[in-house]
Amino acid sequence: MTRLSSRRRSGLRWRPWSKTALGLVFTAAMLFPAYWMLNVSLTETADLRASPPHWYPKEPTLDGYAAVLGDQLPNLAASLLIGLGCVALTLAVAAPAGYALARLRTPGAGVIGFLLLVAQMIPGVVMAMGLYAAYVRLGWLNTVWGLVVADSTIAVPFGVMLFTAFMSTLPEEVLQAAKVDGAGVGRTFVSIVLPVSRNAVITVSLFAFLWAWSDFIFASTLARNGDLVPITLGIYDYIGNNTTQWNAIMATAVVASVPAGVLLVAAQRYVAGGVTAGAVK
Amino acid sequence: MAPPTQRSSERRAEPASSRSAPRPPSRPGRTRAGAGRGSPGPRRWAAAAFAAPLIVYLAAFYAYPLYRNIDLSLHDYTPRAFIQGDPEFVGTAILREVLTSDAFLPAVANTAVFTLVSIAVQYGAGLALAVFFRGSFPLSPVLRALFLTPWLLPMIVSASTWAWMLNSENGIVNAVLGAFGLGPVDWLTSPGWALVSVVVANIWLGIPFNLVILYSGLQNIPGELYEAAQLDGAGPWQRFVHITLPQLRPVSAVTLLLGLVYTLKVVDVIWIMTRGGPGDSSTTLAIWSYRAAFGTGRPDLSEAAAVGDLLILMALAAGLVYVYLRRREARP
C-alpha cells in the first residue's frame, strides 16, 4: 500500500517530464527538415557530395550566404515591397468590409459570406490563369502592382472573415459613445473601431505579408520574364540553373524563412489565433 | 486569438437582441439626437460605402478571372489567337477532349491518392499530437508553437529542402537507409516512388494545420465528461473512443473537408519536387493544369482552363458541403 502510493507520488512528479522528453523527440523529428536546410546552407561546396552526408557542418562556411548577398538582394527587396503592398491593399479592402458586415447590417451579408468562403477554395492555378489572361490586356504582367493584387486574393477573404468575427465582438457602448459625441460612421470607424481592433489588424497584416512573401504560383505565372523576381522565384531559378550549389540554394531558403521565424518568435499568439479563426488556410 | 477585451466576452453572453434595445443614456439629453434610429437611410448608405471596395474587389479579382478561365476553356486559344483575341468558339469540345484523353484517368487516380492519403495521415497524426499536447506538461506551449514551422515556411523552401533530402546520390534519406543496408531509392526520379515522395512532403506540410484546429477543438470538450468517465472506470483508450472522437466530430468534419480542398489545389510542392514526373507519374489535376498553361514552351491555355473548370467544380461542391456542415453544427 505504502509502496504503491509512494510510487504514484513520484510518478506524478516524473510523468510530466517524461511527456516533455517525448514531446522533444516529436518536435525534433518534425523540425528535422528545417535543421537540414540550415546544415546544408553552412556546408562547404566540396562536402556537399560527401557520402554519407555530414550530420552537422564540420567546417561551417558562409559561402552560401555570400552568394545570397551577391545574387538575391534585389529579389529580397522585391518580395518585401510586394509583401508590404499586399498588406496595405488587404487592410484597405478587408477592414471596412468587416465593419460593414459585422456592424452596419449590410444587405446581402449572407451571400457575401458564402462568396468569400468559396473564394478561398478556388485553386491558385485557376486564379493564376484568369489573372494572366486579364493582365496580358492590362499590361500588368511583371509588375509589382500586378503581384500585389494577385497575392492579396489569398489574404482578402481571410481578412474580411477575421475582421467580421472580431468586430462583432466589440462592446456596443464604445461605438455608442462615439455616436453620442456626434461622430459619423466614418469617424467612428477610423478613430474608435480600428484602434480597438488592433489585434485583428496585426493578425491580418502578418498573414497577408507571409502569404505574399511565400507565394510561388502567382510569381511563377505572372512574373515570368525575369524583370521582377521575388525571392521565391530566386530560389526556383537557382534550382534550375546551378544544381551543384545546394549550399547557396539552402542559404537562400534560410533567408527566405526569416519572416516565418520572426512570426513564430514574436507573434506566436496571433499565428495560432489566425489558424483557428474560421479555420482558414 | 485572445479575446479583445474582458468586457467584450461578458457582452457576448448577453442575448443578441440587447444590442438593438435602447441603452440607458449615459448623457441624458443628447442620446436621442445621436441615436438616429428613425433614419435607416444614411445607415444603409454607410453600409454600402464600407462594403463597396470589397464588392468591387470580388468582382474584379475573383469573378472576372473565374469568368476568363471558363471563357478560355470554351474557346480554342492557340497562342496566336490569345494575342490577337480572335479564338474560335468550340463549346465543350476541349473539356470532352480532356475527359477522354489517356492522361485523364491516371491524373484522377494520382489526385485521389495524393489527396486521400495526405489528409488521412495528416488528420491521424494531427489528432494524435493534439491529444498528446492536451495534458499540460513543461514546455508544452513552446513545442506546440515549434510544430507550426512547416506551415509557416514558404512552400518553395520546404519543397526544395525535401528535394535535396530525397536526392538519390547525396540525400540524407538514402544515406540513412544505406546504413541499414537498404536502398538506394530513386525517390524523385522513379515512376514508382515520385508520388510517394510528394505525399510524404505534403503530409509533413499539413500536420500543423490539423494539429492546431484539432487542439482547439479538444479545448472545447468539457472536462467533466472525462472525470465522469474516469469515475466509471473508463481507461484512456475508452475515453478517447467514447468521448474524444464523438465530441470532436464536427471539428473533424471541417478539418478533413478543408484539408481536402487545400490538398486538391496543391501545385507548388509537386511542381518543385518532381514537376509531375517522371512522365505523368505524379501529375495531379492541378499540376496538369499548371503544366499545360505555364510549364512548357508551348502553352495550351484552353486545355489548362478546361482542367481548371473541373477544379472549380470540386471547389464549389466542397464549399456547399462546408456550409452545410457549419449550419448543422450551429444547430443544437
Give a short overview.
The complex is a heterodimer of chains A (281) and B (332). Chain A has 281 residues and is mostly helical.
In words, what does this structure look like?
The longest helix of chain A is centred in the first third of the chain and has 41 residues, at about 65-105. The model of chain A is unreliable at about 1-10 (pLDDT under 50). Chain A has about 280 residues and is mainly alpha-helical. Chain A has helices at about 1-40, 65-105, 110-120, 125-140, 145-165, 170-180, 185-195, 200-215, 215-220, 230-240, 245-255, 260-265, 270-275. Chain A has one domain: MetI-like fold, CATH 1.10.3720.10. By secondary structure, chain B is mostly helical. Chain B has a domain at about 110-275 and about 305-330: MetI-like (MetI-like fold, Orthogonal Bundle). Chain B has 17 helices and 2 strands. The longest helix of chain B is centred in the N-terminal third of the chain and has 35 residues, at about 40-75. The relative contact order of chain B is 0.11. Residues about 1-40 of chain B have low confidence and may be disordered. At the A-B interface, helix 1, helix 2, helix 3, helix 4 and helix 5 of A face helix 1, helix 2, helix 3, helix 6 and helix 7 of B. Chain B: InterPro entries: MetI-like, MetI-like_sf. Chain B: Keywords: Cell membrane, Membrane, Transmembrane, Transmembrane helix, Transport.
